């Protein structure tokens, strides 16, 4: 499959309607904490507080930005996480990505280049194990050819959105 054809399959109907500019990037850099007051960010980037608020609200509304809390899954007893690679039938990549994103335990997923068609980060706990995911969730993916799982076993800066 040519790279142009691959890109057409993957990115059809997935283009962001709002593109951030350099000012938005500076605001995002200063939102790293998520609790930083807009007035503090405004001083750092040379804008008014209202301009920062308006830009953040626009990015939130357009789905370009999310302000969320993150947790290191190793810090929560009984929790673990894994990176999962999915090989998908080429004509089913878009629909499979939509399905994977909705599966229980999936923190995030993206179409990728390389050995896999889609990569996802999945969270597990004592009540919802990898076996549950395989038996109850993977069967929902149309066009699934194979998967490979890579469990996260370290990384003090590795943090995820809590989804369970």
Layout of secondary structure:
Layout: H1 3-11, H2 22-30, H3 38-45, H4 49-62, E1 80-88, H5 93-101, E2 106-111, E3 118-124, H6 130-137, E4 144-151
Antiparallel strand pairs: 1-3, 1-4, 2-3
Helix pairs in contact: 2-3, 3-4
Overview of the structural elements:
The protein has 164 residues and is an alpha+beta fold. The chain has 2 domains: 3-62, Arc Repressor Mutant, subunit A; 73-151, Lrp/AsnC effector binding domain/regulation of amino acid metabolism (RAM) domain (Alpha-Beta Plaits). 35% of the residues lie in helices and 18% in strands. It has 6 helices and 4 strands. Strands 2-3-1-4 form a 4-stranded antiparallel sheet, with helices on one face. A hairpin with a 6-residue loop joins strand 2 and strand 3. Helix 3 (38-45) packs across helix 4. It is globular, with a radius of gyration of 19 Å. It starts with a helix and ends in a 13-residue tail after the last strand. Mean pLDDT is 88; it is low at 1-14.
Keywords:
6 helices; globular; 18% strand; single chain; four-stranded antiparallel β-sheet; Alpha-Beta Plaits; disordered N terminus; 4 strands
Structural class: alpha+beta
The total of beta strands comes to: 4
The percentage of residues in β strands lies in: 15-25%
Largest sheet: 4 strands, antiparallel
Terminal-residue CA separation: 37 Å
Q: What is the count of helical runs?
A: 6
Secondary-structure arrangement, i.e. CATH architecture of the largest domain: 2-Layer Sandwich
What ranges have pLDDT less than 50 throughout 5 or more consecutive residues?
A: 1-14
- Say what the CATH topology of the largest domain is: Alpha-Beta Plaits
Q: Specify Rg, calculated over alpha carbons.
A: 19 Å
Broad shape? globular
Query: What is the count of distinct domains?
Result: 2
Oligomer: single chain
């Amino acid at each position: 499959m040519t790279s142009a054809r691959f890109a057409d399959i993957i990115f059809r109907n997935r283009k962001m309607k709002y593109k951030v500019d350099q000012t938005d990037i500076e605001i995002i850099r200063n939102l790293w904490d998520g609790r930083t007051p807009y007035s503090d960010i405004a001083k750092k980037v040379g804008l008014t507080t209202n301009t920062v608020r308006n830009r953040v609200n626009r990015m939130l509304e357009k789905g370009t930005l999310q302000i969320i809390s993150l947790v290191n899954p190793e810090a929560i007893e009984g929790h673990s996480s894994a990176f999962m690679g999915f090989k998908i039938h080429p004509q089913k990549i878009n629909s499979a990505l939509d399905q994977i994103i909705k599966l229980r335990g999936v923190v995030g997923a993206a179409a990728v280049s390389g050995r896999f068609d889609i990569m996802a980060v999945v969270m597990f706990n004592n009540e919802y194990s990898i076996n549950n995911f395989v038996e109850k969730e993977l069967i929902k993916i149309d066009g699934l050819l194979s998967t490979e799982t890579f469990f996260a076993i370290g990384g003090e800066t590795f943090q995820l959105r809590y989804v369970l």
